[in-house]
Please model this.
Amino acid sequence: MTAASSGAEPQTPAGGQAPLDPPKTAGIQAEPDERIAKKSLTDRLVVRPEIGALLGAVLVFVFFSVVTGQFLSPLGVATWLDDSSTLGIMAVVVALLMVGGEFDLSAGVMTASTSLVTAILATQAGWNVWLALLVSLVFALGVGAFNGWLVMKTGLPSFIVTLGSFLALQGLNLGVTRLVTDTVQVSGMRSASGYESAGGLFASTFDIGGTEFQSSIVWWIVVTAIAAWLLLRTRFGNWIFAVGGSQVSARSVGVPVVRTKILLFMGTAAGAWLVGSINILRFASVQANQGIGLEFQFIIAAVIGGCLLTGGFGSAVGAAIGALIFGMARQGIVFAQWNSDWFMLFLGVMLLAAVLVNNAFRRRAERVRR
Model:
């Protein structure tokens, strides 16, 4: 029987000292670990790069909904979604490249180059459209890989390298098209073998409530979902943020910097191929000078969507929202019967506002994460 059970006093240990009492912790609470402290809703939102673009999209949507009733009509919605879709596809892939710290000024003219390759092979060489699409994809990926390799091999800014690619592709588009067709246009896709099935995948429509919507909208959503998953849920996404933040630090922790950047340039080229395929199969003809200037719209949409020009910060979803703002504003101005010149003013204001807001959000996000 123990002393406690018999009611006896506890024995004093040798040395005559009473046993030490356990520390009194009643009423005292340990300080919470700041690493697991629950952040406020504001703090959780502010670290998201796309939050500024989302607020801007809501304002643009409400504004044009009030200004013109046509904006919210089924046909109106289909129109501005269609306008946003191909721009959105490119804005998303360009955003990934920008998060990785690079630019691609050849992205706009690449959409025309891939269309021309497909159209020339299908209409002039008599190839099946599917085979022509495959060859144009290989062509696009080859140009993208070359851009990425040259940037990493030479250490030149991607702005300079892809500007050279832009000029080369522009000259190639005009020279080859004129050589083959004696004009600057390739047409006749509808009579090519395999056009119907390829068009059904890339350029069909679907009906919602009696209104036809372009399948490019679905492609836009799919590309955005894949890019967002890739950026936020995969190791490759971590590599993208790492190389965009600091190549030296990324390389020191084992990130394959060269491979990551080459793959990003190839991704931009693949997006241009997709948009080029949608365009050639939808309109059945292509001009050799198409796509020039669109690269700046892709970059602007990505910046409006939360991407920083310095790299290491951005969002695929935000870029898609930036393209949506583009489409709503451009078509909203048409529906309101304003002079289309006002769109350029809107674009300039949105770009400046986006840069300021993105920098502010990034600084706030850095403070929250510390």
Notes: Residues 219 and 334 are 25 Å apart (CA to CA). Strands lie at 185-187, 205-208, 211-214, 285-287.
